[in-house]
Specification:
By secondary structure, the chain is of the alpha/beta class. 40% of the residues lie in helices and 15% in strands. It contains 12 helices and 9 strands. The strands form 2 sheets. A 5-stranded parallel β-sheet has the order 7-6-5-8-9, sandwiched between helices. It has a 4-stranded parallel β-sheet with strand order 2-1-3-4, sandwiched between helices.
């Protein structure tokens, strides 16, 4: 089996079959990662460039580790330390890299649509590692893999996305994926952090009441407050936000049921999650990080066009 697309630009472009194939392939690679020797020759002779125009720690390291586990040749590019800082255009940068015979480009950019622009202009396979406030497809895939691993299925699951929905590419990709795979989705947060037309546009329920949302859901994916993307004051203070929408152990204990807690990271401790929740047995945040490598291995492998896993 193979994916229906040459690129991974967003979850919006994937079919249900594509998602299932990526998740099942990730399961196979997770089993590889449990072995004493964690490296396989699946992408030997494949050259991948990690093209990051925006700061990243978790995603960049996760992709780099996935690439090296697959035996690919890896080039790391950081815009601030390159000719891009001198005014070189995105297309010129990539054409220069492609002249070095690169097969795949993993790209993060602050401009929504930048990976789609590249996919229209260059022959290499493009993987979107986050573009503006548009999508972050591999995060949604690893979140889905983690939910499926923890609860057994995505179909019929009640998933709440809580926090800064307006500025979150993770939220958008998660909504696309969860809806395609048969889950129910509620977004919850202050009215100023939830887009006005999201219910009609994306087919989700909207709640402004945290307790009611937690009482409804099986899984709470708690999103970071992205102060760096907010160009106006959208709530009074981080302390006030924590009092209204922060999740602590006392609140979870009062629900009379156990829900799964997730977070794409990095966590603002004491803002969206208190430490007694982030480090609790209900949290699968560290499993998400571990699963990210297996999921990205699956995406890289499937987009490489290699027909037989080694």
């Amino acid at each position: 089996m193979q994916l229906s697309t040459k690129h991974l630009l967003g979850i919006k472009n994937l079919t249900q079959e594509d998602i299932s194939l990526i998740l099942s392939t990730a399961q196979q690679f997770k089993e590889v990662l449990q072995r004493p020797v964690k490296k396989v020759p699946s992408l030997r002779e494949v050259t991948i460039v990690n093209l990051f125009y925006e700061n990243s720690t978790r995603t960049r390291i996760s992709f780099e580790l996935a690439e090296k586990r697959l035996s690919a040749d890896v080039i790391n590019f950081t815009a601030s330390a390159s000719s891009a800082a001198k005014g070189e255009t995105l297309l010129d940068t990539v054409n220069n890299i492609l002249s070095m015979k690169v097969d795949m480009v993993v790209m993060r950019h602050s401009a929504s649509g930048a990976p789609h622009f590249l996919a229209d202009h260059i022959p290499a396979a493009i993987i979107n590692a986050g573009d503006g406030i548009n999508e972050h497809p591999t995060q949604a895939l690893l979140d889905a893999f983690s939910i499926q691993e923890k609860t057994g299925t995505l179909a019929g699951r009640k998933v709440a996305l809580i926090g800064d929905i307006m500025h979150s590419r993770v939220a958008q990709s998660n909504i696309y994926l969860l809806k395609k795979m048969g889950a129910s989705v509620v977004v919850c947060g202050p009215p100023t952090l939830i887009p006005k037309h999201i219910a009609a546009a994306l087919g989700v329920e909207v709640s402004y009441n945290l307790r009611e949302t937690l009482a409804w859901c099986d899984v709470a994916n708690v999103l970071r407050i992205q102060l760096e993307r907010q160009n106006q004051v959208l709530f009074s203070s981080l302390r006030e936000y924590n009092l209204a929408y922060g999740i602590g152990k006392n609140l979870l204990d009062s629900l009379n049921k156990e829900i799964v807690i997730m977070h794409p990271g990095p966590i603002n401790r004491g803002v969206e999650l208190n430490s007694d929740v982030a480090d609790s047995k209900q949290s699968i945040i560290l499993q998400q990080v571990e699963n990210g490598v297996a999921v990205r291995m699956a995406v890289l492998y499937l987009l490489s066009g290699r027909s037989v896993a080694e």
